[in-house]
Amino acid sequence: MSEDIVGLNPVRAAGAVASSALLLAGAGWAVRAGWEVRLAAAGEPAGGPPDQGDGRHRALTSLEDGYHLVSSAGGVLTAVCVVAFLVWLGRVRGNARVLSGREPRYRGVWVLIGWVVPVVNLWIPRGVVAEVYRDSAPGRRLPRVVDVWWGLWLVGLVSGAGLLYSDSTDELIARAYDNVWPLVLCDLALVGAAVAGAAVVRALTQVQTERAALHV
Hints:
Blueprint lengths: L11 H31 L8 E3 L2 E2 L4 H39 L9 H4 L10 H13 L7 H15 L10 H10 L2 H33 L3
Antiparallel strand pairs: 1-2
Helix pairs in contact: 1-2, 1-6, 1-7, 2-4, 2-7, 5-7
């Protein structure tokens, strides 16, 4: 009997896509961190930072121009990752409802806006994932990697250099010249969050696949 026949959404393919997208996004942040180190090692040009103030910008060096490309590519990979992860999360949430026979605590729009609304985004997304796992695998302890993923994600979220930074790319370049390590540490936290997130996706996908197999 297939997952469809027992009323469950197929999750293997969505899980594979989501975990792969997370790893690709992590690779993008790793490249960005490496590029920031290269900028710091090269040192700020004699002309000063790219943003000269009062709307004036000097011509970029090839290294600075490359950082713009790396940042843009990383942004695209992150956007793809977000879509893939939310598609997977929607599927496993639906399965968890079938498996547990009860409505989830966080419903509807909160699954989406819980990631971006200040303050509540510090716990709602983790709560959604944890609830799905517990409803899918009653009696099992929540994998430690969930807390590792969420802790690293929060570092990248609130550090001021990661997902919610308000600086332009040129301003980030200036920060790399001035003090690169906060930027690099934030990037590495996001790399770790991506790797841990891929492990979370695989763990939850696996338990739902195992539960579906029990209905065969």
